[in-house]
């Protein structure tokens, strides 16, 4: 749940301090956890439930906070690091606090639940969770003035003038938050939305519109170079610092992929766990409401064109669509909007790296988004007055996705204090500007009451997906005597679960070990078949892998049959020559 945990013996015994600093009236709900609280709570879970929860510090943020990698698994026949696993990474964007709350809800559920279905799941699966991958930016929600932040604490000279953070945002109207600033300029490319004067939109030249304003982050030209707020606090954005689609010309992405501790640490941790078969990123995009498009290749001048894959494979899109159908139904059942607008993941993102480079089915989910307003239904009075009137579609009237418009409509009814009226202000140099717009984090940190049903849906979906992961199994073995202590052994392997062992992209790129069906002769048994193993790049549900071998050995000797792959577990059986198996 979003709210802090109820007081328990555990909380009292280790002295958890769940208090938050007092925030202004327009602050996000105090039910959101700052990083220190997240850290204390996951440490408490590890102490209280050591049989399920194990913590690993995989690195430090630029600001010195620990980056945690939480392993949750129950007792079972197989080592947790050998079982099929699902990885959840939250809030590497830094401003996506709903993602960290979703990760904490999942950790709490898995750590404390005594439900039989969860105990059975954790006996056969492992779930790895990184609940706060950008602690430096995460805590900006609780700072004053409050500004949407994605950058780490490292230094970054964005305008290449040799100075650091010399021209950041300024709280011009003194309300404790940083919003937008608009300046009248006939050469600008923005106009006031004629349908909603609270927001600015880009002028559509195809409709004959001409720009009337320029729009910036709220602030003045501190370094007097003629540009507003081009070099603010915070360093590289780690969710733009991964190799897949790395935006080479973007200063916020850093000089090269993996230069930040945040991005390199999570890549190293994931690469060290070869059993991860699926990944979920809690971030600002939603790839089940808006199918992922991949990214455009960027080739620096004079460089050889990139050869990396950059588009989602058709089979993997089909898998996502199947998962998305169930996901949308879950949203609808919880009273959430499954038809709302959704963003795409950005270049150089963790989600793109997990799919395109690490090679597993990956879904980025925003957890919550402002719903698309429903069209009013035609009432009986209207219908009587106008018999030709048609009922409005239940899906709403929006013909084009417009997340900002949906957000403004939602906030108008549910959090009007988050919409800051435009206010005229004169800058120190005499320039007249207006400050206003949507308060930071209003899009990503709804109230606890609003967010709670979304947390439950996403925890439920992750548990469901974990159970659907492919698990290898040996379906059949046969031994037929050939005479003179020669035996023909045959074996058939397959999978349990509803997902394939590998993505189609991984099979094309061959960056994952294939499925291997192998025969290992026991003592006194000699293999007569040269190739002791059969391999296949991918097993899908209802498909199999088969192999036959000839061996020579006395009756009663044994042979081991193994079915292996890194991310779908393993299956082993021992057969005895001359005995029914």
TrEMBL record:
SMART domains cross-referenced by the UniProt entry: Zn_pept
Domain Peptidase M14: 31-392
Signal peptide from the UniProt entry: 1-27
Keywords per UniProt: Hydrolase, Metalloprotease, Protease, Signal, Zinc
Superkingdom in the source lineage: Bacteria
Named cofactor requirement(s): Zn(2+)
Gene3D superfamilies: Zn peptidases
A Pfam family assignment: Peptidase_M14
CDD domains cross-referenced by the UniProt entry: M14-like
Ranges of compositional bias, category Polar residues: 375-387
Location of region: Disordered: 374-400
Transmembrane regions listed in the UniProt entry: none
SUPFAM superfamilies: Zn-dependent exopeptidases (SSF53187)
Recorded family membership: Belongs to the peptidase M14 family.
UniProt protein name: Peptidase M14 domain-containing protein
